[in-house]
Amino acid sequence: MKVLVTGGAGYIGSTVCSALIDHGHEPVILDSLVTGRPEFVKDRIFYRGDIADKELLKKIFDDHPEIQHTIHFAALILVPESVQKPYEYYYENVAKSLILFKNLHELGRPNVIFSSSASIYDDVPGFMVREDSPLNPRSPYARTKYMMEMVLKDFCHAYGMKGIALRYFNPIGADPKMRSGIHARFPSHVLGKLVDVALGKEPVFKITGTNWDTRDGSGIRDYIHVWDLAMAHLKALERFEAIFARPEQTEPYVAINLGSGHGVTVKELVAAFEKVYGQSINKVEAPPREGDVAGAYANADKALELLHWKTELTIEDGIRDALQWGKIRETILKFDD
Q: N or C: which end of the chain has fewer CB within 10 A?
């Protein structure tokens, strides 16, 4: 089927588009390329523009009337930057998404799969969170994701839409076929930083925050290979109608955790990285960054039940793919000097 993918030129969006294509679907990409990469939309159906542009959206649906579902990735995503630039984050992530959802409703495309985040959860004993665990978004970025979940839920109840919010934990790795990966010139993702240190692009890896109430003091995360994440979106698209047809699914909106179900500390990730890489890297302990939290990992039972999905790839797979992508990235992406 054809599906609209906003932000399909980004790290996760482009990988999801590859998974859709590999399984016989046809993504139609809408991206402003403010942060996305033109290399990731080459030879794909692509419209360059803003998600809040109703005329462009109407043209897309006129050109591709088969589209009935939208996967909405487009957003600014950096937690520390969101603390410094809250206006930009609320404007891009909330105001424009609000307009997008309104336009999707008015143009008769009521089915939305929304890219949400595990950063909306509060700290819980033991760090494992379920979809009904307490929420407490603690950065402007996290609050934008929380707000848009609430907006989508309200739209679904008021306007006859249907929405699935996929709450990502911590994506790592790259497309195993090396079509895409982390594209920021100076990655902020933990594994991107480890790769840059290993390849000599950065002098030292900073373990930010070492006094959390975890087993070794470093933050705890649920690292999920980006290809596993992409496969979850494929399942959400293919099972969309089946999920809402279940007799027990009385709500037009559902939130689903996407994680491995296993907590890994940052120090444990570094140890795994060094094992895969085959040598130690330079590392130091540092204070937490603005907006950082102790972390959490997923209870992924709902994803298995509703999406028939679970993670298949390991942290080591993610590290190997990230290292390979790091070695070839600059031969694929053309950065302006």
A: C
Pairing of strands 69-72, 205-208: unpaired
Cα–chain center distance at 6: 12
Q: Is 141 a catalytic residue?
A: yes
SS3 56: helix
Q: Name the one residue in this structure whose structure tokens are 């840059």.
A: 196
Cα-based distances in Å from 251 to 105, 141, 157, 221, 255:
18, 26, 8, 30, 11
Q: Which residue has the tokens 């609050």?
A: 143
What digits encode the pLDDT tens for the residues 292-315? Answer: 888 899 999 999 999 999 999 999
Tell me: the pLDDT tens digits for 34-46? Answer: 999 999 999 999 9
d(CA 69, CA 28): 11
Longest dimension (CA), the chain: 56
Paired tokens of 237? 């698209």
100-127 pLDDT, tens digit per residue, is 999 999 999 999 999 999 999 999 999 9
Cα separation, 314 vs 306, in Å, equals: 22
* The CATH number of the domain covering residues in 2-171+223-260: 3.40.50.720
Q: Are 327 and 199 in contact (CB under 8 A)?
A: yes
Q: Please check the confidence at residue 88 and state whether its pLDDT lies above 80.
A: yes
**Per-domain residue ranges of the chain:** 2-171+223-260
Strand 111-117 and strand 128-129: pairing?
unpaired
Distance of CA 246 to the CA centre of its chain: 27
* CA-closest candidate to residue 114, choices 150, 50, 155, 164: 164
145: Cα within 13 Å, side-chain hemisphere: 29
Which is catalytic among the residues 47, 89, 121, 141? Answer: 141
For the chain, give the percent of residues with pLDDT over 70. Answer: 99
pTM of the predicted structure, to 2 decimals: 0.95
